[in-house]
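In the design runs reported in the main text, the only information available to the sequence generator was the tokenized backbone. The following block is the verbatim input for one such run; it is reproduced so that readers can re-run the procedure and compare outputs position by position.
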């Protein structure tokens, strides 16, 4: 995939999982540069369709630890007004809550306090690196437009939102050894993403941009959505869709 927006090969070490942001063991973090690129591509489509620059409402129906949402909030918080996240796993939502709290001055200050306690107790070089990263991430917060975030437990196939409340929907759908779809259709050509798009349709409009990231074996297609882009990055394929 050729990058159009996140074109610089800058270091994203401040976002390393476990340094300041939290990750769940066994769940790979979404690459920072890739999620930044996808967000900016989707935002460009949204602005073209809507003809405005207002901060958007971003929703992830399978947020996991919300690592990539926290990354987007820090990198592109000026373009996001509201963050909404849900997942069926209540345990992983504990980490998601901690990650999203880093998008607030109070939450980031608490995280810095935790790291300072580790320095006082163990004085490891990794703790000092984490403190410097947290202080740099803290400086990103004043530029943020995020006024609120909502986090709740929900089944991927039963979204619990107000109709037409989403500007940009971003879903890194389950795949791999640690996460599996809970579906009953075993047909060879069946894609659970199709069912996901069906369930999401009441909550999106032709003004919404839908981003679906999956492995290369899954399909993201439905007659109620128009494909804007189809990209491949490593082991992932990404679909940018517009409801019709």
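Verbatim output:
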């Amino acid at each position: 995939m050729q990058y159009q927006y996140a074109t610089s090969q800058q270091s994203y070490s401040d976002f390393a999982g476990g340094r300041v942001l939290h990750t769940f063991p066994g769940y790979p973090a979404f690459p920072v540069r890739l999620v930044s690129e996808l967000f900016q591509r989707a935002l460009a489509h949204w602005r073209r369709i809507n003809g405005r620059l207002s901060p958007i409402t971003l929703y992830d129906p399978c947020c996991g630890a919300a690592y990539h949402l926290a990354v987007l909030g820090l990198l592109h918080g000026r373009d996001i007004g509201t963050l909404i996240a849900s997942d069926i796993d209540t345990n992983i939502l504990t980490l998601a809550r901690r990650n999203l709290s880093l998008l607030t001055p109070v939450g980031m200050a608490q995280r810095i306090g935790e790291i300072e306690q580790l320095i006082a107790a163990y004085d490891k070089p990794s703790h000092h690196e984490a403190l410097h990263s947290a202080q740099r991430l803290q400086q990103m917060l004043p530029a943020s437009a995020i006024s609120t975030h909502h986090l709740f437990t929900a089944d991927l196939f039963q979204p619990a939102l107000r109709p037409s409340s989403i500007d940009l929907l971003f879903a890194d759908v389950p795949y791999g050894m640690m996460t599996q779809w809970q579906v009953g259709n075993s047909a060879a050509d069946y894609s659970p993403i199709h069912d996901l798009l069906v369930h999401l349709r009441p909550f999106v409009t032709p003004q919404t941009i839908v981003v679906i990231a999956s492995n290369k074996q899954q399909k993201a297609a439905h007659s109620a959505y128009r494909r804007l882009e189809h990209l491949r990055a490593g082991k992932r394929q990404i679909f940018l869709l517009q409801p019709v």
